[in-house]
Design brief:
binds adenosine monophosphate, 5 helices, 172 residues, 9 strands, alpha/beta, two-stranded antiparallel ribbon
């Protein structure tokens, strides 16, 4: 874990002033760090019967794809509006300034699925709650939530549904 931490770059004032951005590109480009991230994420879900991993656009696509591959599960993208070609379900959510929308294909998840929703970073939790609501609306058997990094000072966990199992590899 210390090795991964040593490869995460802190960028001050990105994308706006006052934000300390946790940049995972420096970990993803490092072969050993990428391998450890993929392995450690998958160890959390080995025995859970996971059938689909949902990755949130766009940084959640990287860890989400690796996790799906490692678990022998399928990968499903949760995307920004207007990107998915077929029939979609959508969820609007509040951001610091204004609102945002994420979409998924309506047929992406079914009642037999056991789903992990993955994103790179948990900040306030708004994005993950929106993704969770979308996945929930498709009535899977079970939903797990996973991050690589959790920013505990922002208390995003409090925004997430209390009855859902949430994991993260690294907390700051
Ligand atoms: P939130 O909805 O506030 O939990 O924000 C989560 C989304 O914003 C994730 O998709 C992250 O990629 C990104 N994000 C928010 N804050 C940070 C941060 N300090 N460092 C890196 N990514 C962040």
């Amino acid at each position: 874990m210390e090795y991964i931490k040593s490869k995460i770059r802190d960028v001050q004032d990105f994308p706006t002033k006052g934000v300390l951005f946790k940049d995972l590109t420096t970990a993803f480009k490092d072969p050993r760090a990428l391998h450890i991230i993929g392995w450690d994420l998958s160890q959390l879900y080995r025995d859970k019967g996971v059938t689909k991993v949902v990755g949130i656009e766009s940084r959640g696509f990287i860890g989400g794809s690796i996790l799906a591959f490692e678990l022998g599960a399928g990968f499903v993208p949760a995307r920004k509006p207007g990107k998915l070609p077929a029939d979609t379900v959508r969820q609007e959510y509040a951001k610091e300034y204004g609102t945002d929308v994420i979409e998924m294909h309506r047929d992406a998840i079914g009642p037999d699925d056991i789903v992990v929703i993955h994103d790179d970073v948990l900040a306030t939790g708004g994005t993950m709650v929106a993704a969770y609501n979308l996945v929930k609306s498709m009535n899977p058997k079970k939903i797990y939530i996973n991050f690589i990094i959790e920013l505990t000072a922002l208390n995003g966990r409090a925004a997430l549904p209390a009855d859902v199992d949430v994991t993260s590899l690294i907390s700051y």
